[in-house]
Design a protein that fits this description.
heterodimer; A: about 55 residues; mainly alpha; 2 helices; about 65% helix; rod-shaped; B: about 700 residues; alpha/beta; Rossmann fold; 7-stranded mixed β-sheet; two-stranded antiparallel ribbon; 9 strands
């Protein structure tokens, strides 16, 4: 892969990562709080939440 | 085989509409386990409108296959509510909440090992005049403790079906479902004597509640009794207020009794306890073999001893951290070696360019350095799971309560503070059970000071940089780690003491705590707990930390410097370098340079990002050091980092100062959002950021300059 192409792909990945982080920070959370990041929610409740989301 | 009378349903009783059941019980009686056993995953979880109390509604099925709605109400010791949770339970049962249907039937779950205490709530619920099924949970533990509960006699005394059960093992659940399927569930026939002096007031208030508040006669009687115990003060959003006439009537009786000087609330409560005591005497038999002191009592005599208790707690904590430092070394070295190998492989298979740098200096350096701490995190949670599973954690709470009550913290603050060692967010959410609003705010304000698991990678990195493993014994590292936990914990107590005497003055708290019996740990639960933590940790590393590492790589690589610039000049020329220089005057008095500043700012998203940010920033600088230098372990790189004048950057004093900064500073965006939601205002989260980060700066300034004056 040429150096120029590498730069384009790398910058595209950076833009995607920044957009994802911004969206994550600004979006109204479906599950407010830590967004299940802290491990405080039991696996049983998570399965339940996933099931409810599917409905 | 014929079913017992309390389970069997009459054949003609095929109900047209299945009733709504409410599950009620004291905290820790296994109520939620039973609810889960009944409903499985057929649950809906939400909040009661206007109040931060969880609402769980599920569906189970009758023996005829018809759905039965089950509402899991918050745990309560009495209908005389003392917290928002208990107020919701009371209001739903009394039909005071328009957002929730009044349950047709009630499942009262009681802890069979503490029957007499649990019967107080049951007794109040029987007053409601609704069909009740009593579930005697934890029967296995009752047998272990030598308690013989005469189920048939209890049924006879209370006049309701009684189902013995072990919810955790699923025993008795089928019997319970059969009992719930009964269309002809009997009403309780129990009666108790209301003191003669109070009877006219009960009758008067009952009449008013029927006439003006539209209550059914039996519900009105139960509510009248509750109002007269003067403990109906907790009102929450969504609760219907009493009619003015009823309030007038209540005020009239209160005035009369105040004038007489009669403690009518105590009279009512005592009368109820007398009745319960008589029932318990007839129903609970103790085998002589275990009368008196149990094994748990003997262990508790040592473990909760004012002096031995502290020594044992200190010993357990030391053992925990020694294990973290010694056992984790091998898997950490293994991960480290493989990450280096991976980076080498990428370099060997890709031509030089931005994408290759992004992968090696951004993704692998940023994520890998955090993943390396996984073994230590797993060992920590293995020990925590083990201590919880054996019942020791409740004893630790008991020991700590002596200290907590001295600083004015509520006894119920212990669980939120303990949870905050894992993460402040569940800790802050657990403060919902604290009755007094001021105590709750104090607990929320100090909870993030407890050293959460996100701080662990920062501490471990700094300890690694500060104390090289080949020269320093593990006990020294343990001492340093314990110091950080000590600083966080006692910092929290100190600020709680200060807030309780200034901003949030209140009555001294009273602690009531239940110590569960000791039992052997369930290794399956401990392993599940560990795996859950590992998954959370890896998911964060693979999502948020990866994203930030990629963005940080860009910020440290762009704009491109003029040709011939060194690695150090490249970082300095970059966006991150320029931003770091802007904040450097603010942090230079603490011994931190602009590169550390980049780590501090980026770790506001999550504390452990500091480690990956440092890896990205310092690995880039190290690029000129040789062909393998950028994959050298981060701790080596930190030890060789210098100020422009050639002085070492990460001196032992700076490492210590940085660790102290992370003990006190409010460095977590998610926690800020949760505090805002829980306090329903921006005032407290902003105050929290100001006082915590301000304290961090002042303490670090004092430590750094004090250390320098002492020659470090």
């Amino acid at each position: 892969m040429s150096s120029q192409l590498q730069s384009i792909v790398a910058l595209a990945i950076v833009v995607l990562a920044a957009a994802w982080l911004a969206r994550r920070a600004l979006a109204k959370r479906r599950n407010p709080g830590c967004g299940d990041d802290c491990g405080a929610v039991s696996p049983e409740i998570k399965r339940l939440q996933a099931k409810l989301r599917k409905r | 085989m014929a079913l017992p009378a309390h389970i069997a349903s009459s054949p003609s009783a095929a109900p047209s509409r299945m009733p709504v059941y409410a599950v009620v019980g004291n905290p820790n009686c296994g109520k939620s386990t039973l609810f889960n056993a009944l409903t499985g995953l057929k649950q809906k979880v939400g909040n009661y409108p206007g109040v931060t109390v969880e609402k769980k509604v599920g569906t189970t099925y009758s023996q005829h296959g018809q759905p039965i709605t089950v509402i899991d109400l918050p745990g309560a010791y009495s209908l005389a509510a003392r917290s928002p949770d208990e107020a919701v339970t009371r209001d739903v049962l009394l039909g005071r909440r328009p957002d929730t249907p009044q349950p047709d039937r009630i499942l009262c779950v009681v802890d069979a090992t503490n029957l007499e205490r649990n019967l107080y709530l049951v007794h109040q619920i029987l007053d409601l005049g609704r069909p009740v099924i009593l579930v005697l949970n934890m029967m296995d533990l009752a047998v272990t403790q030598g308690l013989d509960i005469r189920v048939a006699r209890l049924e006879h005394e209370l006049g309701v079906p009684v189902i013995p059960c072990e919810a955790v093992n699923g025993k008795g659940v089928i019997d319970l479902k059969l009992a719930m399927s009964r269309a002809d569930l009997p009403l309780s026939k129990h009666a108790w004597t209301i003191p003669a002096k109070i009877a006219p007031a009960v009758a008067d208030l009952q009449a008013s509640l029927v006439a003006h508040d539209g209550k059914a006669p039996l519900i009105a009687r139960a509510e009248a009794l509750l109002l007269l115990t003067d403990q109906d003060s907790v009102r929450v959003a969504g609760s219907q207020p009493l009619h003015a006439k009823t309030q007038e009537s209540l005020a009239k009786w209160e005035k009369q009794w105040d004038a007489e000087g009669t403690d009518w609330a105590a009279m009512l409560v005592n009368s109820r306890y007398d009745t319960i005591g008589e029932i318990a005497e007839k129903v609970v038999l103790r085998s002589t073999a275990v009368n008196g002191v149990t094994v748990s009592d003997r262990i508790d005599a040592v473990v909760t001893h004012p002096m031995w208790g502290w020594l044992i707690l200190g010993g357990i904590m030391t053992l925990l951290f020694v294990s973290i430092f010694t056992l984790a070394e091998y898997p950490m070295n293994w991960i480290d070696a493989h990450l280096s190998g991976l980076s080498e492989w990428v370099k060997g298979n890709m031509s030089a360019g931005d994408l290759r740098d992004l992968i090696t200096d951004g993704a692998i350096a940023g994520v890998g350095v955090v993943v390396m701490f996984l073994p230590q995190i797993l060992i920590l949670f293995f020990f925590i799971g083990l201590l919880e599973s054996t019942g020791y954690m409740a004893r630790a709470a008991f020991i700590m309560d002596r200290l907590m009550s001295r600083v004015g913290l509520n006894g119920k603050s212990f669980i939120p503070l303990l949870s905050s060692y894992a993460c402040a967010i569940p800790g802050i959410m657990a403060t919902r059970t604290i009755e007094q609003q001021k105590d709750r705010i104090v607990t929320i304000l100090v909870a993030p000071l407890m050293s959460c698991s996100a701080r662990l990678p920062v501490y471990l990195l700094m300890i690694a940089a500060l104390l090289p493993s080949d020269r320093v014994p593990a006990l020294d590292k343990v001492g340093l780690m314990l110091l950080m936990y000590f600083l966080g914990t006692f910092g929290a107590f100190g600020f709680a003491w200060l807030f309780k005497r200034t901003l949030l003055k209140g009555e001294p708290p009273v602690m009531i705590m239940e110590l569960p019996p000791y039992h052997l740990p369930r290794m399956k639960d401990v392993a599940l707990h560990m795996l859950e933590r590992a998954w959370v940790f890896l998911r964060r590393a693979g999502t948020v930390i990866l994203g930030i590492s990629i963005v940080l790589w860009f910020l440290t690589a762009y704009p491109k410097p003029p040709e011939g610039a060194s690695a150090a000049q490249r970082v300095e020329y970059s966006f991150a370098g320029r931003a770091g220089h802007v904040i450097e005057p603010l942090i230079k008095p603490l011994g931190f340079d602009w590169r550390i500043g980049i780590g501090l700012v980026s770790s506001f998203v999550a504390r452990e990002v500091f480690v990956s940010a440092t890896a990205v920033v310092f690995n880039v600088e190290n690029f000129e050091g040789g062909k393998n230098a950028d994959v050298a372990p981060l701790r080596q790189v930190l030890r060789s980092a210098k100020w422009p004048d050639g002085r070492a950057l990460f001196t032992p004093l700076v490492c210590l100062t940085l660790m102290i900064y992370y003990v006190f500073a409010m460095q977590c965006l998610s926690t800020v959002a949760v505090v805002k939601r829980e306090t329903n205002s921006w005032r407290w989260p902003l105050f929290q950021i100001a006082y915590m980060t301000g304290t961090a700066w002042i303490v670090c300034f004092l430590v750094y300059h004090g250390g320098r004056m002492l020659g470090y």
